[in-house]
Amino acid sequence: MTRIIAGEFRGRRLAVPADTTRPTSDRVREAVFSMIGSRADLEDMRVADLYAGTGALGLEAVSRGAESAVLVEADRRAAKVVRENIAVCQAQRRVRVVERTVESFLAAVAGPFDLVLIDPPYDVSSDDVAAVLRLLMPALADGAWVLLERGTRGAAVDLPPGLESVADKKYGDSMVRLLRRVDSFA
């Protein structure tokens, strides 16, 4: 069972698409938001949840005070479940779903985002994730935060100029990296 851990939507149970996603566990989500919360205030942040899956990460951010969230999911079945989860949280005014690939979303998005949550399927290559980070740079606000979750068995992801690693934590088979935009990338 996946549920919202804290904030306005606390305790709401979220549906999980059968066989199409690997939801971030409640334990890892709690750790992720503790990691972010100890460094930044979520209040009024504009959030993008790339590879949304169930939408749990983006909904958790809004539940904890983020102004808005865009949840990007290419899989039609998963996007349908994300919409259902948004309705369960009654968050339609603050959260929207974009049913596209992450790459096509980033090619067209204006941004800026203050927090971007990236939890791709573990079989997405490190090179592909590095390419997504490069595409993401123009959509990041100055000082924006990026949270990257990967499998511990995958190769390290090369960071583009302008992003620095602030913290790395391992939780079971998940590796979480908190990144920060440190320059005025153009």
Automatic annotation (TrEMBL):
The keyword ATP-binding does not apply. GO terms for molecular function: 16S rRNA (guanine(966)-N(2))-methyltransferase activity; nucleic acid binding. Its EC number is 2.1.1.171. CDD domains: AdoMet_MTases. It is an enzyme of class 2 (transferase). InterPro entries: DNA_methylase_N6_adenine_CS, RNA_MeTrfase_RsmD, SAM-dependent_MTases_sf. SUPFAM superfamilies: S-adenosyl-L-methionine-dependent methyltransferases. Keywords: Methyltransferase, Transferase. NCBIfam families: 16S rRNA (guanine(966)-N(2))-methyltransferase RsmD. PANTHER family: METHYLTRANSFERASE. This is 16S rRNA (Guanine966-N2)-methyltransferase.
